[in-house]
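Support request, priority: normal
Reporter: lab tech (M.K.)
Component: structure prediction queue

Hi team, I submitted a job for Porin from Thalassotalea euphylliae yesterday, and the status page still shows it as pending. I've pasted the exact input below so you can check whether something in the sequence is tripping the parser. The sequence length should be 307 residues. Please let me know if I need to resubmit or if it's stuck on your end.
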Amino acid sequence: MKFTKQAIALAILSASSFAASAATVDVYGKAILTVQNSDEGEGSFTEVKSHNSRIGLKGSHELRHGLEVVYKAEFKVDMDGDSDDNISSRNQYVGLKGGFGEVLLGKNDTALKKAQGKVDLFSDLDGDIKQIWKGENRLADTITYKSPKFANFKLALTYIAEDSLDAEDGISASLAYGDAGLKKSKFYAAVAVDSEVNGYDVARIVASTKVAGVTLGAIAQTQEKVDSDVETDGFMVSAKYSVMKNLDLKAQVQTADTDGGDDKSGFTVGADYKLAKSTKVFGYFTSFDMDSQADEDYLAVGVEYKF
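Reply from support: The job had stalled in the queue. We restarted it manually and it finished. Here are the results:
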């Protein structure tokens, strides 16, 4: 199975060179690896860990009257070599783009997940908000709609098909204002909801801005399991400060308080040093305090390379 998946991925990437005359094709990827000390409740150990490293291709093909075909085929690659099944699917879709926006079919991040923008400063790493919150879903059998921007507002909808007789379909929706990267606007905000998505109903509010050279972000979230009335409320704040052109200091704190107990909280502090536009070295310390599960601590240094 390992050889088959590798062969399929390589064949797709190789084929892209022949399609270049008919469409734009970009091959891209990201390698994120750390050397770290991990303690997941039974004592600490040292490991080399791949954090959502990936490779993919994406592009578009202009048809006529402003209509384009757009596509993406992205794969997660476990570059630490720990897994026998080291290639798995990430976002993979095809769709149409035009003055109406975009419609995408396939496997994709939900509207609620995308609404977080860049507020989670430790996304893909051990401090990722998905460690104690629901809603960070990448799901198959989806239809996604992204509207054009109207007065700096943008709507996104994800329909998740039930895919079987005894399942339920789901809806994820978001309304965002501004630029998530804060390059074209001084403020970013979003509201998003999930209805019966991966077993949960979720509501999320996101905000981000820059104040005196510090990038500040916050997320408030409420989640409830579909087959129960137990509710979990959470809050997360993050901050990033550029000490110099190439050095960023980062920190974030996250909580998840559940009715009747089982509260969770976590914090992460870290630093990034950019060696080039494509490459950075970084370090972080993450700690999670769990009521009904083992506490977790991670101390890591690593490198990220993007191409």
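Confidence is low (pLDDT under 50) at residues 15-21. Helices lie at 2-19, 111-114. Let us know if anything else looks off. Ticket resolved.
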